[in-house]
Amino acid sequence: MHFISTFTRIAVAEVFDTMLSLKLEALETLEGADVPHGPLEGVVGSVGFAGKINGTLYMRYSDKLACSVTERLIGVTPVTAADSEVADVIGEIANMVSGTMKGQTSKQGYHGWLSTPMILRGSEIFLESKSAPISSMSRFRLPISNDRLEVWVFAKLED
Amino acid sequence: MILDVIHSHIVVVTTDVFKTMLGWRVEEAEPYQRIARPQPLELRSMNGSIGFGGGMSATLFLATDEPLVRLMAGKIMGADIDPAMSDLSDVLGEITNMVAGGCKSRLCDGGFPVVMTIPNIIRGRSIRATGRDVQFMIQRRFLLPEINNDFQISLFGRLN
Fold first, then answer.
1. B79 pLDDT more than 80
2. pTM score > 0.90 for this model?
3. Is any Cβ of chain A less than 8 angstroms from the Cβ of B75?
4. In the predicted model, what is the mean pLDDT of residues A75-97?
5. In chain B, beta strands by DSSP E
6. What confidence tens digit (pLDDT) does each residue in B106-134 have?
7. Cα–Cα distance between A83 and A85 in angstroms, integer?
8. Cα(A73)–Cα(B78) distance, rounded to whole angstroms?
9. Mind giving me the DSSP string for chain A?
10. What is d(CA A110, CA A157) in angstroms, rounded to the nearest whole number?
């Protein structure tokens, strides 16, 4: 497994444990040509990395899972996944996961800056990065839902 | 104000890239207005996306639809080629990269250093993009009168 995939799994688990007191179970990690690009439904939090590590992290939740995570973090039950609180929480989690990853990659000499978190919502979404030699997708099971959290990283490392 | 400078770079670079790479004249669809408060953005069916870090943390979207990207691919790859979806993504990624890269170069030359991510392509239906921790939003729609089409460039972000 590429160290970027390992760092992703560690960062996601750490952030969910710290912020939400949830122990995630890491399921499979797919890399390279095995990584599916879609179609995705639901809510996607994303943050870009620019610098010696260059790429983007995407975290995909079903609408139901996004609402459950929001309720757990801020104690407010969203009416729908389109509520602004959901976007805030999904964006904040993406920001914390990418910040944790950035700290880990910096220790390996791959420093980077982060873009602001973006939250995408829609249907039949496909994500592609044609310039990224590293691509990975990890699935996680959360104890509060049967729906899976899926995390993509498309990245390029520069020496 | 730096946002007006960034806006000006977006217009100049977009016009230049579309003329140079595609041979198309670009017109601004509406007069420029500052957006006081960032709003969620409706993306289109095929979108190029690039993040920025450094002097600003931001994301740029070039929002368009597959038929226009097919026309772009025809210009770049040759009209007799039927491009696959991966070719379309390549073309849109490259155009987005050139627009963002041109803005980056001009900002760096002007003493406002930024770095940018590699381009991503986001396809889908009814996609709405919302920024978190964003302070500004620049949104411009551009017309391509020679082919009766249009596209939109949006930049969400905050200054660091």
1. no
2. yes
3. no
4. 95
5. 27-28, 41-42, 46-54, 56-64, 114-116, 120-131, 136-144, 149-159
6. 999 999 999 999 999 999 999 999 998 89
7. 5
8. 52
9. --HHHHHHHHHHHHHHHHHH----EEEEEEEGGG-----EEEEEEEEEEEESEEEEEEEEE-HHHHHHHHHHHHS---SSTTSHHHHHHHHHHHHHHHHHHHHHHHHTT--EEEPPPEEEEEEEEEEE-TT-SEEEEEEEE-TT-SSEEEEEEEEEE--
10. 7
User: Which amino acid makes up residue B142?
Assistant: F
Closest CA to B107 of B62, B138, B133: B138
Residue environment code for A131-146, b if the CB has 16+ CB neighbours within 10 A, otherwise e: bbebbbbbebebeebe
Chain B residues whose beta carbon lies within 8 Å of the beta carbon of residue A156: 118
Nearest to A127 by CA among A63, A58, A81, A27: A58
> Which pLDDT score is estimated for B159?
93
Angle in degrees, CA A17, A102, A123, rounded to 5: 70
Distance CA A149, CA A132 (A): 22
Averaged confidence pLDDT in chain A: 94
Amino acid at B85: M
Looking at this predicted complex, what is its ipTM? Answer: 0.93
Residues A55 and A155 sit within 8 Å (Cβ to Cβ): yes
Q: What does the pLDDT read at residue B34?
A: 79
pLDDT at A130 over 80: no
Q: Which residues of A touch B (CB under 8 A)?
A: 38-40, 47-51, 54-56, 82, 84, 87-88, 91-92, 95, 112-132, 154, 156
Q: What is the pLDDT of residues A25-53, one digit of tens each?
A: 999 999 999 999 999 999 999 999 999 99
Query: Residue A8 is encoded by which pair of tokens?
Result: 């992703």
pLDDT-derived band at B25 (thresholds 50, 70, 90) equals: very high
